[in-house]
Amino acid sequence: MSDPARYAAYLEAALPTAAGRPARILVMNGALTPVEGACPDGVVIVEFPDVQAAKDWYQSPEYQAVVGERLASTNGRAVIVEGLPA
Fold it and tell me: Which own/partner pairs from 76-81 qualify as long-range (CB within 8 Å, at least 24 positions apart)?
């Protein structure tokens, strides 16, 4: 993480963008125990009911207004992973 204070401000602004959406935060920057490869600075996992709901949130004007702060304060990456059927 290149700028922890800026990242903290990003989180404060980003969390409300999921309000009212079918999103559930499962993991948010908890302790990491590396077992293979380079350890990331942090991990956030947000559960959505399907890929489209995740895309809808990520592409929403509300989230797009703040995502630049994450990109400016971290070397992170974001992926949408399709889960197993229930």
Answer: 76/1, 76/40, 76/41, 76/42, 80/51, 80/54, 80/55
In tens, the pLDDT along 34-69 reads 999 999 888 999 999 999 999 999 999 999 999 999
Cβ contact 6:69 at 8 Å:
yes
pTM assigned to the model: 0.87
Q: Determine the CATH number of domain 4-73.
A: 3.30.70.100
Q: Which residue has the tokens 């991990």?
A: 43
Task: Decide if 58 contacts 77 (C-beta within 8 A).
Answer: no
